[in-house]
Design goal:
CATH superfamily: NAD(P)-binding Rossmann-like Domain
Number of strands: 7
Shape: globular
Helix content: 25-40%
CATH topology: Rossmann fold
Structural class: alpha/beta
């Protein structure tokens, strides 16, 4: 169902991935940083698959609109929005209180929030930028885990995932030094948590949504004219085929697959293309990975080392 909105979204096509609208029935999925882009793709896909969803973000206007859109797509009371600064314990406490008041629990916790402007280099960045990166990603992750995971352990079911990135910055990759520093710390916390959670029924993994973005054509100059003199339109990012960047709707489908396979993934770090390959997503450029024994990682491979930790889907 297409919903008119100011948000940059496209219709979900989850059926093409083999999902059912009952796959996440009775589950409550909380995603931080979910008022736009990949976070919004996550909560929309989870709601389509039958989950109740908690949208949390600092952008109150977009968060409220995301709540309206998801409820219009899936029915009343499927989604709630709670404004939250994940660096503040009082906001985490309020988030838990509002979520439990509405839904009574959290089954799936996805930490995706981050400040994308924290992209400066080591030599010229302010130390405060590193502090902020750490506070959002790592400190936020720890507070969220401590708020929600104990109840998951008590119920013997839960999924915890961190929206990770590369291990260190290397041009021309997106995400600068300060950004990757905080993210790397949170990825370490998540993979350590997976070891702490063995035999509890709760799984933890890292998912790197590399290449997922929604382009806003209004923020770019008009496209050049084609051979026929007519302006070239923006590339299509519709599912199931990708022309350029991966759309957030496809990223949401990948997350649903990861949630359904969380036990297998626990303790792993994967790139989103790994999920597409595992779920046989109709992807135009399938990835092949050559693993050679007893050799040093290249600099590019090292940037993604935490994204390929653990066995992933290969079990």
């Amino acid at each position: 169902m297409a919903v008119e909105t100011t948000l940059l979204i496209e219709p979900l096509e989850m059926e093409k991935c083999g999902f059912r609208q009952s796959d996440l029935k009775d589950k409550v999925v909380l995603v931080t940083g979910s008022a736009n882009n990949i976070g919004l793709g996550y909560v929309r896909a989870a709601a389509w698959a039958g989950a109740k969803v908690v949208i949390t973000d600092l952008d109150e206007e977009k968060g409220t609109e995301a709540q309206r859109v998801i409820n219009e797509e899936n029915g009343a009371d499927v989604a709630i929005f709670v404004k939250c600064d994940v660096t503040k314990q009082e906001d985490i406490n309020n988030l838990k209180a509002k979520t439990y008041e509405k839904f009574g629990k959290v089954d799936v916790l996805i930490h995706n929030a981050m400040n994308m402007t924290l992209s400066g280099p080591v030599l010229t960045s302010k130390v405060d930028d590193l502090d902020q990166s750490y506070a959002i990603s790592a400190r936020g992750m720890m507070m969220l885990i401590q708020a929600f995971v104990p109840d998951m352990i008590e119920r013997k079911y839960g999924v915890v995932a961190f929206s990770a990135t590369q291990f260190h910055y290397m041009p021309p990759m997106v995400g600068g030094t300060m950004y990757t520093a905080g993210k790397t710390c949170a990825a370490s916390i998540t993979l350590s948590l997976a070891n702490e959670l063995k035999d509890t029924g709760v799984s933890a993994f890292c998912l790197t949504p590399a290449g997922v973005v929604r382009i806003d054509p209004s923020r770019f100059p008009p496209p050049p004219a084609g051979d026929d003199g007519a302006p070239k339109g923006p590339p299509s990012f519709s599912m199931p085929g990708f022309n350029g960047f991966i759309p957030p709707e496809a990223g949401g489908a990948a997350l649903v697959y990861c949630i359904l396979n969380a036990k297998k993934l626990s303790g792993s770090g994967i790139i989103i293309n790994d999920a597409f390959d595992a779920m046989n997503f109709p992807y135009p450029n399938p990835q092949t990975v050559s693993r050679e024994k007893s050799r040093r990682l290249t600099d590019m491979e090292l940037t993604m080392v935490l994204c390929t930790a653990g066995p992933g889907f290969e079990q």
